[in-house]
From TrEMBL:
Transmembrane segments: none
Identification of the protein by name: Methylmalonyl Co-A mutase-associated GTPase MeaB
Keyword tags: Chaperone, GTP-binding, Hydrolase, Nucleotide-binding
Recorded superkingdom: Bacteria
InterPro entries named in the record: GTPase/Isobutyryl-CoA_mutase, GTPase_ArgK, P-loop_NTPase
Keyword hit for Chaperone: yes
NCBIfam families per record: lao (TIGR00750)
Family the UniProt entry places it in: Belongs to the SIMIBI class G3E GTPase family. ArgK/MeaB subfamily.
Record's keyword annotation contains Ribonucleoprotein: no
Listed GO MF terms: GTP binding; GTPase activity
CDD domains: MMAA-like
């Protein structure tokens, strides 16, 4: 796949699909491919779409795609679906809802199963975003799995996070409980033609009035707008997109966009280091028999778990000459 990197940069869809599959399956060339793509990333603007199941995230995503295409933007979509703990399969229903865009060469849609990962994203989501970034997408939409209080991981991947609420389901109160108020850059009250939409808008506005949070720093703060939408009728979509772009302009003008991306790189680097350290320790300590030896000692109460862990780390990180 490494020899196909130029084709990806030239916009070859088949190559993009193959590279994403390689990354999802943790293929042998994965690290080399990501290394080659890295200099060509950092250009796409990433929008996270999160909220509870049934809120209409897929329908809204579909409408945002259309609005961005009308403005001549190339769009990538990563739709994360839950993986069954019994069969290991995923429904991948978002492909059905966004079917109208599959013949559009300016849109690339990929559904991913969580494969047991928590936090609303699949384990390899962030790496897939790099492929779509290098592929030349102007915007990448990430629709999370929709599992309520574990949705917070999206803020480590998206530049702008849209939280979708609906009337009649207690979503606004649940969002407050879940801490989603803290990650939302824009609120979309979808199905706003239903009874109770005004109450949801009022509740969120009141909470925003009471909240003194600021994600943007400096003297200017960003107050998340609350936008009413009816995705099934394409109502409010342009207003929602305008709110997203207004947030982008705010981040760029305040310098916070670069700062937040820098923080995400720090987090990514830390996660990669931890992953490699775990592999190093596991491979070295388990093969040496030290793991089983210390495990028995802990069970026999001749050594405590904390001391055993320190011993494993110390010996695991010492490279043999």
């Amino acid at each position: 796949m490494l020899d196909q990197v130029p084709a990806l940069l030239a916009g070859e869809r088949r190559v993009a699909a193959k590279m994403i599959t390689l990354i999802e399956n943790d293929g042998p060339e994965k690290q080399e491919v990501l290394k080659a793509l890295h200099p060509h990333t950092g250009n796409a603007y990433i929008i996270g779409i999160t909220g509870s199941p049934g809120a209409g995230k897929s329908s809204l995503t579909d409408q945002i795609i259309s609005a961005l295409r009308k403005r001549g933007k190339k769009v990538g979509v990563v739709a994360v679906d839950p993986t069954s703990p019994f069969t290991g399969g995923a429904i991948l229903g978002d492909r059905i809802r966004m079917n109208d865009h599959y013949n559009d060469k300016g849109v690339f849609i990929r559904s991913m199963g969580t494969r047991g990962s928590l936090g609303g994203l699949a384990r390899s989501t962030k790496e897939v975003l790099k492929v779509l970034d290098a592929f030349g997408c102007d915007f990448i939409l990430v629709e999370t799995v929709g599992v309520g209080q574990s949705e917070l991981e999206i803020m480590t991947a998206a530049d702008t996070t849209v939280v979708v609420l609906t009337p009649g389901a207690g979503d606004s109160i649940q969002a407050i409980k879940a801490g989603i108020m803290e990650i939302a850059d824009v609120f979309a009250v979808n199905k706003a033609d239903l009874e109770g939409a005004d109450r949801v808008v009022t509740e969120v506005e009141v909470m925003l009035d009471l909240s003194q949070r600021s994600r943007s720093g400096g003297s200017q703060t960003w107050r998340p707008p609350v936008v009413r939408t009816v995705a099934m009728r394409s109502a409010g979509i342009e207003d929602l997109l305008d709110a997203i772009l207004a947030h982008r302009n705010h981040l760029e003008a305040s310098g916070q966009l670069n700062e937040e991306r820098k923080n995400r790189v720090k987090l990514e680097l830390s996660e990669i280091i931890e992953h490699h350290i775990k592999d190093l320790i596991r491979n070295k300590v388990v093969k040496s028999g030290l793991w089983d030896k210390l495990l028995e000692q802990v069970l026999e109460r001749t050594i405590d778990p904390h001391s055993a862990a320190i011993d494993i780390v110390d010996k695991g990180l010492v490279r043999q000459e």
